[in-house]
Each structure stands twice: as C-alpha cells, then as structure tokens.
Design goal:
The protein is mostly helical. The chain has a single domain, classed as Up-down Bundle (Four Helix Bundle (Hemerythrin (Met), subunit A)), CATH 1.20.120. The protein is 66% helix and 0% strand. The chain starts with a helix and ends with a helix. The chain binds zinc ion.
Amino acid sequence: MAGEYVYRAGAKNMSARELNLDGHRTELAVRAADLKKILDAGGDAEKMERSLRLLRQVEYALWRLERGRFGECLKCEGKVERQVLDASPWAIFCGDCQGAVDILQAEAKARRSTVKLAA
Ligand SMILES: [Zn+2]
C-alpha cells in the first residue's frame, strides 16, 4: 500500500539542523501562500495548472516535514541530497531516483506520441 510505503524508516536519523528544517518550513510556507495568491487571482489556464501542481507538492512537503519524513526519498528511502532540497524543498526523490523517474516519464511520453502518430 502506498501509505505504508511512505511510513517506513528513512531520513529521520538526520538532525533537524542538518536538514535545515526551519529554513525549509519557512520557505515552503511562503511559497504556498504565494501560490494560493496566484490561484486566487485566476488567469492563464496553463499557469493555474502549473501553480496548482506546485502547490500540491509544497503542501505535501510541509505535511512530510511535520511528520519527520522531510528529505527522505519516496522511492529508495535514502536521503534526498542537500543541494536538491536547497533548490527544491518539495523534492520527493533523491538525484538517482529522480533520474530514473525522468527516464520513465520520457519513455511514457514517447509511447504516447507514438500512439498518437499511429492513430
Ligand atoms: Zn532515491
């Protein structure tokens, strides 16, 4: 089950200080507020879609942070690299897993466009 998977052991041995949790919490909260403002203002559908997707990621990161799961890779349960979190505190995969996910997504996209071409 997906829920169980999220609750298994991982990055909790890292100290809050090591993970810069307070800094990330503040940054995520500010980002969430900004995104909500953008969504409230309305406008361009593509921008709304992008903002909503990012807001979900940001809120999920805050949820994980409150439960001591922040900085833990969802796939391999290893640590998400510090530089990844500094760039995107809402990241849910470590560099290696993100690379694997990117390849899978690219393949899925390529398959979709092949199907479209064949149709
Ligand atoms: Zn990983």
